[in-house]
């Protein structure tokens, strides 16, 4: 039986609320996510002050979103493993390390991109170049 359009839009709203609850949960409980969120806000404020072009904004937003989303996936993997394998287990440890490594790779990439896009404009702004 197919859902009516009213039921479908209610289902979509509920799905969005669950996703929002997930964002609130990691913001509340994950120190690393808070750190990445703070860095994202800092980069966005700096980008606004330095006047990036549309394509540069797109790269910055995409990069920051990837880091935040990966941090959330990493937190989910940690919780799944804490639930399925609460005791010490070498395989669980390796899986957690790999997931944390994925976040680190994306974070290093984001840092390099932020330097490439923001540093030259910052140097011009403070009159070094
Ligand atoms: N059940 C386990 N068995 C073996 N090693 C584990 C286990 N749980 C955690 N570890 C090791 O401790 C590290 C930290 O795991 P933890 O679940 O405490 O994540 P965390 O401190 O929140 O890490 P992150 O900074 O990546 O969010 C893992 O990367 C892994 O090396």
Automatic annotation (TrEMBL):
ATP binds at residues 30, 78, 96-97. Coiled coil: none annotated. The active site is at residue 71. Substrate binds at residue 71. Mn(2+), Zn(2+), Cd(2+) and Co(2+) support activity to lesser extents. A divalent metal cation binds at residues 30, 78. GO terms for cellular component: plasma membrane. Belongs to the bacterial diacylglycerol kinase family. Its main location: membrane. One of its GO terms (molecular function) is ATP binding. The keyword Membrane applies. It is found in: Cell membrane. The chain crosses the membrane at residues 33-51, 57-77, 98-119. Its cofactor is Mg(2+). Keywords: ATP-binding, Cell membrane, Kinase, Lipid biosynthesis, Lipid metabolism, Magnesium, Membrane, Metal-binding, Nucleotide-binding, Phospholipid biosynthesis, Phospholipid metabolism, Transferase, Transmembrane, Transmembrane helix. One of its GO terms (biological process) is phospholipid biosynthetic process. It is a multi-pass membrane protein. The lineage of its organism: Bacteria, Bacillati, Bacillota, Bacilli, Bacillales. This is Diacylglycerol kinase family protein.
